Amino acid sequence: MSHEFDPLYIAYLIYFNRDRDYFECHEVLEELWLEKDREPVYKGLLQVAVGLFHFRNGTVNSIYNKRLGAIKMLKSSLRKLTAASHSKLGIDMQRLIADVRDYIARLERYEREPFDFYPIEIDITDPLLRKEVQAASKKLSPHMPLRIGYERGPKAKELPTD
């Protein structure tokens, strides 16, 4: 079967919509972004997942306010998604952009109006993409358990903590 859509993009959509595994979304789309010469639209999609990861898994403390990290990532994603040509991605980009804008607005009011994390759904509009996502989702198992915490990398672990 010939694929019109890159398997990494298909995996991203499965992890994003089916599994809500935003860490894996980052992993697969970063690989595609690098393969596509750092095309901004892929970075924007990657940043939507990272922003949701920050908010869902974050805490707000004096060391790092992950709500602010989520806002920063989501705003950065908007700049890339609104400026990019995305007619060949097979998704409702305008709806995604609107959903991200709404999320940012709610996060900016979070201290006055707290809310629980909720996912964003990426609406697949292209019938071929929808078919490829459905077929691939039967073969692509979810990563269980989901990575929901933060881990310092090996280089950071070598740094002195005092």
UniProtKB/TrEMBL annotation:
Highest taxon listed in the record's lineage: Bacteria
Organism of this sequence: Paenibacillus wenxiniae
Protein name (record): DUF309 domain-containing protein
